[in-house]
Design brief:
heterodimer; A: 503 residues; mainly alpha; three-stranded parallel β-sheet; 4% strand; B: 235 residues; 13 helices; globular
């Protein structure tokens, strides 16, 4: 790590990396100033929400809350069951990185629960002070806007809660209520609008995609001497690959896309991308809006039907895989037109892993001998989905791919990986520059675990299977004295190892 | 019948109705509220039998809490296990003849009372000593612990300090069950103990004590992770 490298300018202090994790004492209000930009009226209206704060917003918010609770067993049970035991208080990466007590999962939930108690429970109606019930007012709304945008919905707290209370569900509901009264977050809602009209989060139109994919084909041919195709909108291909749009140009995402293409090529699989469903991400999840999630999921179904594919495969994207794996059937099913002999949908890692098991890929591990790898389990994959037939396949399959592609691999500390993995700090719709302080501080636990394997095992690179994780790490690694290119895609490693033709 | 007897007779019928109907209402509500999207916290069991096992470990050994924090687990598990034995020990006041296994566990139930207070003390201490837990504690969280400690201490007081007429107490409760009412002994410690117990029964369905039925309905814990297998089945 060269000390002379330009360090990003920041008006906050990057936390120091400690040799072992420390639970910080609380610092009340230390992140109260953190607020993402509010969505402008046109952004709000485009995705079905009021443009600005509605007149009787207190009442509308409370009624919306009631309707949400009536239709969600999760919310109802979670709001009633918390005993304030404190098990979750040291589990959130944002608490560990900021010390703000409202970033403790239970305290974040209580911003919501206090309103539920006030309006929907006997105790809260008659003894509000006793049970910590609060009126829905401007002060509380400000806290909601600030702190429900300091939750990346990573579900780490839900692993440790004795009742499985999942703060992600509560934070999604809070954002949906805020959208309903006209207070939306610019970053998420603008992206949802783009994805629903253009087809992807980045707003890449079809000509730009064609251009990019042709460029990549040339790059691969230059590098390997082999013509590997990246087909777009190819009818009657076997596989529709739905991947995060960042894979089309961002680093290191694009190296992952090249990896998928090489895998398909070597296995002789017929595949295509779609310009209609050119986005795996589904930001509808982050704002708790099933309607918006549905619109985006429907595009995947429509593209699959239109192109006449037999399988749907998702690229490396964490929350996209959670939505695809758990919700796709519900949102856009039934998928009876696809080949039922393959999992619907399938993850690219499952495809690659299966090919490796069947010896259909030629991998030369020395292609990655310049690296010592560790693997960052993405939160939504780890705690919100599965790969393969066995519980926990989402941990074993990506590691098996890395081990098949690399000679040098070391896991980070056991309480920071697999189901206990820390969020990268940028998930849940927070991957925006207006939240950079939060993102840097929230990355602290992951950076400490990374630092440990860097020092003890000589690890040089952090492999990830999520577009958000990759972008987030590229941004925050330099704040902690690392290089931005120390994060790599898992399929980038496959790409480096795979032997095409005679090279 | 004395005013005291009449008052306690009504109180316990009322408290029993509240805890049974109130908790029954909440359980019904949990069961009927839709859970449209699968949200198990993974890795989750892929079969129904696996979920039963996960839930059993959760409610008997507090497996998630064990992962989270050994101190809370220690105090919390001891408190709940002790409470179970204390409650079982009390079955002797509601059964005639007393079931033999209830006779057998009487001494355990007695030790359990001390363990119960120890566990509560540990949990309460955390509410003062750990800044994060102090921050999230409402007055009601302290009062709940105070109520449980007061019930336990008044109960032990009758065992070791001011013995009460347990034959009469038993006659009173059997009388409630069989609608053949008997007098409530006038003994301030007993009356206090029972008053607090009735209060606990009444607040049960309105308080965080709903975690007891709630945990069984928690979607992150009770859902099977098999959406793809179900969804991709032909036909």
């Amino acid at each position: 790590m060269c000390a002379n490298e330009a360090v990003p300018v920041a008006d906050f202090e990057t936390p120091a990396l400690k040799p072992y994790p420390v639970i910080p004492p609380i610092e009340i209000g230390s992140m109260a100033h953190s607020k993402p930009y509010v969505a402008k009226p046109d952004i709000q209206q485009k995705i079905g929400f009021p443009g600005e704060l509605v007149d009787n917003w207190e009442q509308v918010a409370v009624e919306k809350m009631g309707a949400l609770v009536d239709n969600s067993r999760a919310l109802r049970v979670f709001l009633d069951s918390c005993v304030k035991c404190g098990a979750c208080t040291d589990k959130c990466h944002y608490y560990l990185g900021t010390s703000d007590p409202l970033n403790m999962p239970v305290a974040r939930q209580d911003l919501f629960r206090s309103v539920y108690r006030r309006y929907y429970t006997l105790a809260g109606k008659y003894f509000p002070k006793l049970v910590g019930a609060r009126d829905m007012d401007q002060e509380l709304l400000d806290q909601w806007y600030s702190y429900f945008h300091q939750c990346s919905q990573c579900r780490r707290c839900s692993v440790y809660c004795p009742y499985g209370i999942d703060t992600a569900e509560i934070s999604m509901a809070a954002r949906e209520i805020m959208d309903t009264i006209g207070v939306g977050q610019k970053y998420c809602n603008e992206i949802i609008g783009k994805a629903q009209t253009i087809g992807n989060n980045l707003g890449l139109p079809k000509p730009a995609m064609i251009d990019t994919l042709e460029g990549l084909e040339e790059d691969i041919e230059d590098e390997t001497g082999v013509k590997v195709r990246l087909p777009l909108d190819e009818k009657n291909a076997d596989i529709l690959l739905v991947t995060p749009s960042a894979d089309f140009f961002a680093e290191p995402h694009v190296d992952g896309l090249i990896g998928y293409a090489k895998v398909f090529h070597q296995a002789g699989l017929s595949w295509t991308l779609s310009s209609h469903a050119s986005e795996a991400a589904n930001f509808g999840l982050f704002i708790g809006s099933e309607d918006n999630m549905q619109v985006l999921a429907q595009r995947v179904r429509d593209a699959a039907l239109e192109l006449g594919v037999r399988r749907i495969v998702f690229g490396e994207c964490g929350h996209a895989w959670r939505v695809a794996y758990n919700f796709l059937h519900k949102l856009a099913g039934p998928f009876d037109f696809l080949d039922q002999d393959y999992p619907i949908p399938q993850h690219i890692c499952e495809v690659t892993y299966d090919l490796i098991q069947r010896n259909l890929l030629t991998l030369d591990k020395s292609g990655n001998d310049d690296k010592v790898l560790t693997f960052h389990d993405s939160c939504n994959v780890s705690r919100g989905s599965r790969m393969g037939d066995q519980a926990g396949g989402q941990f074993e399959i990506p590691r098996a791919i890395i081990r098949a592609s690399c000679n040098h691999f070391h896991d980070m500390a056991s309480d920071t990986i697999k189901e206990a993995t820390f969020c990268c700090g940028g998930g849940g719709g927070l991957l925006t520059d207006d939240l950079v302080e939060l993102r840097v501080k929230g990355a602290l636990p992951r950076m400490e675990a990374f630092q440990q394997v860097v020092e003890q095992n000589g690890v040089t690179h952090l492999a990830a299977i999520c577009a958000i994780c990759k972008s987030q790490f590229s941004k925050v690694l330099p704040y902690y004295g690392f290089e931005m290119d120390q994060v790599v895609s898992v399929h980038q490693l496959v790409s480096n190892a795979i032997v095409l033709g005679n090279d | 019948m004395s005013v005291l007897t009449v008052a306690f007779t009504f109180l316990f019928y009322f408290a029993s109705a509240i805890i049974l109907l109130g908790t029954g209402y909440k359980i019904r509500q949990y069961a009927l509220t839709p859970a449209p999207l699968p949200i198990p916290t993974t890795p989750a069991p892929t079969t129904r039998a696996g979920v039963v096992k996960r839930m059993l470990l959760e409610v008997t050994l507090f497996s998630s809490l064990f992962k989270a924090n050994k101190w809370i687990w220690l105090f919390g598990w001891i408190m709940h296990a002790a409470l179970l034995f204390v409650l079982l020990r009390h079955l002797r006041y509601f059964t005639d003849p007393v079931w033999s296994w209830v006779v057998l566990i009487q001494p355990i139930g007695l030790y359990a009372a001390f363990a119960f207070i120890f566990g509560l003390g540990g949990l309460w201490a955390r509410r003062f000593l750990v800044d994060r837990v102090a921050y999230i504690s409402s007055p009601s969280d302290h009062l709940m612990l105070a109520l449980l400690v007061a019930i336990a201490v008044s109960g032990l007081g009758m065992k070791y300090v001011v013995p009460t007429d347990i034959v009469a107490v038993k006659a009173f409760f059997l009388g409630l069950i069989y609608f053949d009412w008997h007098p409530m002994p006038s003994d301030w410690l007993l009356n206090l103990h029972l008053l607090l117990v009735a209060l606990l029964m009444i607040i049960f369905p309105f308080s965080k004590l709903l975690h007891a039925p709630g945990v069984f309905f928690s979607p992150t814990r009770n859902q099977v992770d098999n959406v793809r297998e179900r969804g991709s089945t032909r036909g």
